[in-house]
Amino acid sequence: MSEPPAGAVAPPADAPMPKEPQAVKDKKAAKELKRERRAAAKAQQDGAAISHAKPEQKPKDAAPRAKNMSEAAPAKSTAAHLVPQASLDKDLSNVGVLGDASLFGNVVLPRSAQLNAFSWNAASARATIHPEVLSLCHQLATFNVRGANKRAIAVLRALGAVIRDYRTPQGAVLSRDLLTRVSQQVGHIVESRPMNTSTGHAVRFLKYEISVVDSNLGEAEAKEHLLDRIEHFIRDRIIYAAKVIQTHAAAKIHDGDVVMAYARSSVIEGTLLQAHRNGVKFEVIVIDSRPLFEGRELAERLIGAGIPTTYGLLSSLSTLIPRVNLLLLGTSSLLSNGAPYARAGTAMCAMLAHGYHIPVIICCETYKFSDRIQLDSFVVNEAGNCSDLLSQEDDSAQSKSKLLTRAECSAEPRLKVVQLLYDVTPPRYISAVASEVGLGGTESVGVILRDYKSVLFGI
């Protein structure tokens, strides 16, 4: 190719376009800018979908509204770089975003109540999602169903209702068509709330059972077989496993001990009640945190059973922990490096107990074991509704509460609220892992090992 004349001003046709100076210097800033553009485009698509659902909105108003979008005072887009909305429930896409840098890029943010309602109404109108699944999605999104075991059981029960009402279409194969139908229901559940490790293992178990169902079975027999397999998983992998752990973990509680528990775990609750039934005289300290206050229900159950119980918030942990002899913790998942992935605040309890040389026992069923490795809480996490951390009182109410109200937080565009639901506890702070090892069939044995690696890799 011949070179251009020396006096030519125009660059060659194939010369690359000049890039932005800041994008050349800082590749990370360019990636963040690209991520924000994608988020803005997705938010505009969601807004367009919601606007089409309103019959009174005319298409001819779309052009002037798009033209004057930058001039509107309260922006209705949920993009991170626009002016925040008046309600925090509608402004969840910019949680944790400070300026142009996202601090929590891998945190799954909750959907707004309006978007959830639109999705549920659309699915109900199309009649593609089973009513049991729709009800479960509402309970998951509003945190009415909490806890790894309860979520796994609720999802399996809902999918069992789908299988019970399923009818094989003419000319279709049950194993293939039912697997597609179940995957569609699971996708809708994931949209309401991300699936945790225990629920993911339960769903994969059910999908495998559907894929290997005997083709010689009739429709009624195949459905009955799948329902039996669901009950088998719930009974052996969740209920019986929890009982085995409770029996062996309760043997670690002795007369005169002061046992601490954080929030509420069904396995920990069963362990404390089992030790009380064994005739052990001990005291329990329940540490709780906002906004869910799950420890209140645990404290009420323990007091109702006649166990002396002390209730305190996470801010009183350093004051109460010197009295403790044993710390029992539940977990949502046990990572492959031995780190428990549990509700936020677990790591604080474990690390402070380790500083006071207090044994820390993690009670976890094997179906919660994960092959993922996570070194901190920012690699993967889930965020709750940010407005739950704010004061629920009106600005006009006369109160001495120091919490911000929704109106105060929405009026400050530079203030962002983040509610992380889980944290990761470094494995060096864990003294023991209580788990169960399946021996085949319905038999199982409880183990408490000082070396967590033997639990993870010795099965």
TrEMBL record:
Transcription found in the keyword field: no
GO CC, alphabetical: cytosol
Compartment annotation: Cytoplasm, Cytosol
Biased amino acid composition, Low complexity: 1-12
Gene3D superfamilies cross-referenced by the UniProt entry: Translation initiation factor eif-2b, domain 2
Any one GO MF annotation of this record: translation initiation factor activity
Keyword Cytoplasm recorded: yes
Region Disordered, residue ranges: 1-81
Sorted UniProt keywords: Cytoplasm, Initiation factor, Protein biosynthesis
Pfam families found in the cross-reference section: IF-2B
Principal subcellular localisation of the protein: cytoplasm
Biased composition (Basic and acidic residues): 22-39, 53-64
Quaternary structure and partners: Component of the translation initiation factor 2B (eIF2B) complex which is a heterodecamer of two sets of five different subunits: alpha, beta, gamma, delta and epsilon. Subunits alpha, beta and delta comprise a regulatory subcomplex and subunits epsilon and gamma comprise a catalytic subcomplex. Within the complex, the hexameric regulatory complex resides at the center, with the two heterodimeric catalytic subcomplexes bound on opposite sides.
Family listed: Belongs to the eIF-2B alpha/beta/delta subunits family.
Name of this chain's protein: Translation initiation factor eIF2B subunit delta
